[in-house]
Amino acid sequence: MTESAPKRLKTGPKIGTHNGHFHADEALAVHMLRMLPTYHDSPLIRTRDPDLLAACHTVVDVGGEYDAQRNRYDHHQRGFTTTFPGRRTKLSSAGLVFKHFGKAIIAQKLGAGVPQDAPEVDLLHNKLYESFVEALDAHDNGISVYDPAGISAAGLEKRYSDGGFTLGAVVGRLNPNWNDKRPSDPDEAQEAEDARFYKASLRIGEEFERDLDYYATAWLPARSVVQKAFDKRSEFDPEGRVLVFEGQSVPWKDHLYTLEDGKPTVLYVLYPESTAPGAKWRIQCVPESKDSFVSRKPLPEAWRGFRDQELDGISGIEGCVFVHAAGFIGGNKTFEGVKKMAVKALA
């Protein structure tokens, strides 16, 4: 019933989860635990035997019990309704482990003695849940992205299947097929299944760690850059409708929406294409929401789909490079030129 891969001595506190068909939530839960020093060398027991699970230090996704004091993190029991703070999605084992251990994982990633109660840890804890873990919780609990009744009432139908595109599908494909040849010896069969689970846990864990790395090393440092530009926005437009990154563009959408605090004012973001001297500049429209393709104020329809001198003539602005046919982004050779594009687009 013990994990067969990788082949190394396991000396940490035992982690237990169920055997049989595995899912993304417990695969990620196990990986997140093993990211911490306490569990780094923990053996994994995959079983539904209550006695074997009782001997485990930490149990996820099986056992019918949620008790953080006893390190029991199951969500299948009747009456379970726990959610992540500020969210409505019922947690799976991934969400439960992230709720209780996520801040330790994040503080460890930030290093430099950052405590778990630091504001930046709390910020990343919420961000990683919303951007990564919550979708796994919803998938495992059978919660649709949109209200099915509302979708049906609107007469909307999916244009294609996106099942193969999800992390749940990635993990699901690592399960054995129903007609795969199974070793006749029960221990060998379990070892083979455990080896597949280990690959699944590592696979989804790699994706989680990529997100953690991005948000900790790129997204979080961008916050101060966006804050600085946001504070100076009235220098470029009295009504604060233009945000300018004078040195380098950074991931700005999440931070901008947070800084606006429900009061959308910024319509265009201006930034250089690179830090090289003489770099061209871009003007990008702010979307209505983070995941929307609809701009708050698209660039003028007459400019869309034109380039270079032809666009100069249409816009009356020198140095134009392009405006996308959808009107959400454009470019100019200079900052002065792109600023004029913003001024005309605002008018």
Give a verbal description of the structure.
Belongs to the MYG1 family. One of its GO terms (cellular component) is nucleus. The protein has 347 residues and is an alpha/beta fold. It has helices at 24-34, 50-54, 93-110, 119-140, 148-153, 167-172, 186-231, 253-260, 308-315, 335-346; strands spanning 15-17, 44-46, 58-60, 66-67, 72-73, 242-244, 268-272, 281-285, 320-323, 329-332. The strands form two sheets. Strands 2-1-3-5-4 form a five-stranded mixed β-sheet. A five-stranded mixed β-sheet has the order 6-7-8-10-9. Strand 4 (66-67) and strand 5 form a beta hairpin. Helix 1 packs across helix 7 and helix 4 packs across helix 7 (186-231). The protein starts with 14 loop residues before the first strand and ends with a helix.
| Major β-sheet profile | 5 strands, mixed
Ends: how far apart?
70 Å
Cα-based radius of gyration, to the nearest Å: 25 Å
Q: What share of residues are in beta strands?
A: 5-15%
| Count of discrete alpha- or pi-helical segments spanning 4 or more residues | 10
Strand order of the largest sheet: 2-1-3-5-4
Q: Got a strand count?
A: 10
User: What is the share of helical residues?
Assistant: 40-55%
Family: Belongs to the MYG1 family.
Pfam families: MYG1_exonuc (PF03690)
Protein name: MYG1 protein
Region (Disordered): 1-20
